[in-house]
Design a protein that fits this description.
alpha/beta, about 45% helix, TIM Barrel
């Protein structure tokens, strides 16, 4: 039975990889070689961001970690500028991003990430595809957040505005998203007025609620939490990714190193294995938060050298993480962790 299950999983992974190849999302290894070996500054392999028409680097910047931490403004600015210099052309932030420190509450810290990104966008806005999010579900609340986001980011428009962290417990009340006073109306209004170009959703914990939303509304993009432990609980790769691919959405992967938990227990897997696993899937790009310049440069190197894994190589990585999957899927409620956006 175990061998039969393994064979079935191998066949499934081969189909997933093939679906990405057809869309240019998980190309054959040979297609990357010229780019990967190029010494040119600012070079990253590109993939289509779904139906947006934008070509995105396969590695992108998630503006959390150092960038959302109060008091690290100089490091944040250095990270952002260096990332763009090295070829990153997609930056993901959110109105809610801000890390509580000491006497500073989470509410007071919110907006830190956007403000730090804005300092760089003031002069480099045309070099990146800029994404932010609303955690409000109402029209008025979301429009207020958008106004603040644009001010913080020092821009007159977002390339992508997304509903932030849709949770499983919202599944029975999704009609409120589409109500006259709901978030979808705010998104459509903002798009019609040129404040945003594309619309999307994001989520960590529940495949069904995200799948229901993208089946109900033609979002342009989805930001989903997916890593090498995905198959062991409510798999997004099995239950959500194929629908997003079918709808030609931009697909952005997050939680790749599981907030560095892949390095626990003496090293479950390497950062290269973590990134290569997800980049072999039909995703447009992956976003990773950073604590320092060294992490940025290592991840850029991994992205530049990336070649797709085989189904057997994916299986081998899954076997490595299986004993620790609850830790690596903390964002699906399988282990303790502070509230996460």
């Amino acid at each position: 039975m175990k061998q039969k299950t393994k064979d079935s999983r191998r066949d499934f992974l081969r189909k997933v990889i093939a679906s990405g190849v057809m869309l240019g999302l998980a190309p054959y290894a040979g297609k990357w070689q010229a780019l990967a070996s190029s010494p040119a500054r600012g070079t990253l392999p590109l993939r289509p961001l779904g139906k947006t028409g934008y070509q995105v680097g396969i590695y992108s910047l998630g503006a959390q970690a150092a960038i959302e931490t109060p008091g690290k403004e100089e490091l944040a600015e250095e990270l952002l500028n260096r990332a763009i210099d090295l070829g990153i052309n997609y930056i993901d932030t959110a109105a809610a991003y801000g890390r509580a420190l000491g006497s500073m509450t989470r509410a007071d810290a919110m907006g830190t990430s956007e403000r730090n990104v804005g300092k760089v966008m003031k002069t480099r806005r045309n070099e990146v595809f800029l994404a932010s999010k609303t955690h409000d579900r109402s029209y008025d609340g979301s429009m207020r957040l958008l106004e603040t986001s644009l001010k913080n980011l020092q821009t007159d428009h977002l390339d992508l505005w997304q509903i932030h962290n849709v949770r499983g417990n919202e599944l029975e009340n999704l009609d409120r998203f589409f109500a006259p006073d709901g978030v979808i109306r705010a998104m459509e209004k903002a798009r019609s007025e040129g404040m945003v170009r594309f619309l999307g959703i994001t989520g960590h914990e529940n495949a069904e609620v995200l799948r229901t939303l993208i089946e109900r509304y033609p979002f342009d993009n989805i930001l989903m939490a997916v890593n090498a432990a995905d198959k062991f609980h409510d798999s997004f790769i099995e239950n959500l990714l194929p629908v997003a691919v079918e709808k030609n959405m931009g697909i952005v992967g997050m939680k790749i190193p599981a907030r560095d938990r892949i390095f626990a227990h003496g090293g479950i897997i390497s950062m290269k294995e973590a990134m290569d696993y997800v980049l072999t899937l039909p995703v447009s790009t992956v976003v990773v938060g950073l604590d320092n310049i060294e992490e940025l440069e290592e991840n850029i190197r991994i992205a530049r050298e990336f070649t797709p894994l085989t189904a057997d190589e994916l299986l081998a990585i899954e076997e490595k993480v299986e004993p620790y999957y609850k830790d690596l899927l903390f964002f699906r409620g399988l282990s303790d962790w502070p509230p996460d956006w």
